[in-house]
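check this:
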Amino acid sequence: MEKKGTLFVISAPSGAGKTTLVGQVLKKIPQLFYSISHTTRKPRTGEIHGKDYYFIDEPEFQTLIDQDLWIEWAQVHGNFYGTSKAFVTKKLEAGENILLDIDVQGAKQIMNSKLGLVSVFILPPSIEVLRQRLENRGTDSKTVISHRMENAQLEIDQQSAYDHVIVNDEIDQAIADLCSILENEMRS
């Protein structure tokens, strides 16, 4: 019998460096397939539909909720995010290893499902460093940053629900730690 693929879920508060880590890990581990999420938020500068996200409108997203076609979905920072159930199931059954870069709400939905998964939470070195990273991004207003910081503390409080926790203090070390976890879990 062919081995099913492994489902990896990576979560972090906004600004913890999750996207950067995931991008580097995908370059280093070619047997990982990245699942692109759907979102109702507008693309940021440089983001490409079908590469960074599938950008859809709220009515379409709601229709997919009503049809139970998401493996997980959540409303975060005023926008909806979700992962296609059919896409993930098909890839896992084909023996592919899938990496989901999703928020805590979505991760909890998958943790509560019948799917087996390996979960990793990325922590910033401190809450102060997280605020500085969000401010340095230059993409959000002070109000949005304050809201993200409130959410960040709630998300950080959920880290014990994850199989692994990595502190993203030094980027090269965090990449190495994440690669090690993923490679070890793929072999087991």
